Amino acid sequence: MTGTIVESVYGKLSGEKKGNVIVWKGVPYAKPPIGDLRFRAPQPPEPWEEVREATLFGPSAMQASSGIMEFLGNQTDNTSEDCLYLNVWSPAADKRRRPVMVWIHGGAFTAGTGSSQTFDGRSFSSEGDVVVVTFNYRLGALGFLHLGGVGGNDFSGSCNCGILDQIAALQWVQDNIERFGGDPERVTVFGESAGAMSIGVLMAVPKAKGLFHQAILQSGATANVLSSAIAEKVSSRLLAALKIGHGEVDKIRRIPAQQLVDTAALLPAMSLVPVIEGDLLPVHPEQAIAEGATKEIPILIGTNKDEYRLFSFFDPRWKQNDPEEISSIFEHAFGLNWLEISRNLIEGENLNQEIFDKLMTMSLFTSPALKLAELQVKQEAPVWMYRFDWETPVFNGELKACHSLELPFVWNTLSRAGTERLTGNLKERKKLAEEMHHAWIRFARSGNPNTPKLPEWGSYNLEHRPVMIFNRENVLVHDPNSEERKDWGNLMVHLESIR
């Protein structure tokens, strides 16, 4: 079937052609996870008989408002508990079997959407002749609240509903994407922040085996999971706030979703993330990958030079420059590790925002990325590393090369309304966007990101540690910030030895 109407496994879908790309929006990949399906694994959608119009995005997942996410362009004007929808961009619904790129959005597992205007797949499809899929998945408490410990079998797996949604979307791709002109045997998952952290989990999940063949992880790796014990403490705290006793957990299926979202927003950041539990994620992702779970998967992984500046920049406490307040920021962020970190890495310097940003960037982003790259290299898997160093001129350059800044470059969506608030409008942006965009396309097509416009990009190894630095001029650098990497690695070994 050609044109804009495609017959999926569940029924016919009518998309919309714009230029040389067709897009199908708001395609259900699972039943609405509402009522008795709240906190349960996603179920296949109900088939339909008439042609279904697929020209409007489906609702995004329920989420609390976030000033930083709004600054990044996240729109929350259309959210619902009924959120399990995906979108497909393709040059044509024919038999060409093009490479497929499946995007997993970020947002700290509590925010974000697959239908952000930044994640418009038109350029990938037209420039790279690839099929692009974006989707929504359950977030926050609705996606990652561990209730199995107190609710029994009826809530088994509730802590990983968001990951199960991602697996269901990838299964939909396997079952349907050939009808949209894609190749189910050449699927690249790519994601940023919590999206990349999700990929780090999916790499270790036995149930996800074979659903993707390559992976791109931007500013996220395999470190952001909780043990069942810690996740149960989080759920107990939330249930207490909702005034739900341990013997009446089923009440949580009937309270308004917005109340659940608003109450969960009071929890500390990153309290609701994937959990090591059961058959889905039996061991820590790093252990599974060290044991060869994904040794056949080529990965492209990297970070931004100043990741944490996005978060510290909007924290008013730094503007007050109160030494006691600044000291408490460090102590709160690093907890029991702060004494050893200050002894080994600070060397008597006055604490300031610059030091904090460097430590947080290394702790949350750079170190986990290096760890995953090293684990894969030891399995002789192909790995390419990058770092995004281009600094935005907005706010007098104070945001630097912050978290999420690379997104409109990767997607080649700099022309989208509002993007200039983050990137500014310098003409040099276009060249960098084209170079990154085509590297991602080349990786999706071949498992290797080298393009004619980039310096030769050698795969990562533990001897030379080559990293592509994306900036006004792209350069390949061996072991950038090697001293910081070694100092942090030595500190981690020391902390393990004294625990």
From TrEMBL:
Entry keywords, A to Z: Hydrolase
Enzyme Commission identifier(s): 3.1.1.-
One matching Pfam family: COesterase
Enzyme class: hydrolase
One Gene Ontology term of the molecular function aspect: hydrolase activity
Domain Carboxylesterase type B: 4-478
Family classification: Belongs to the type-B carboxylesterase/lipase family.
Official protein name in the record: Carboxylic ester hydrolase
Source species: Planomicrobium stackebrandtii
Taxonomic classification: Bacteria, Bacillati, Bacillota, Bacilli, Bacillales
